[in-house]
Amino acid sequence: MENIYMLSDAEITNKISARLKELRLKQNISRQDLAVSSGVSLSSIVRMEDGDIKSFESFLRILRTLGKIDVFLPLVEEELINPNEYFKMMQANAKKRRLRASKSNGVNKQEDSEW
Question: Which of 7, 21, 62, 64 would staple 11 via disulfide (CB 3.0–4.6 Å)?
Answer without folding.
Answer: 7
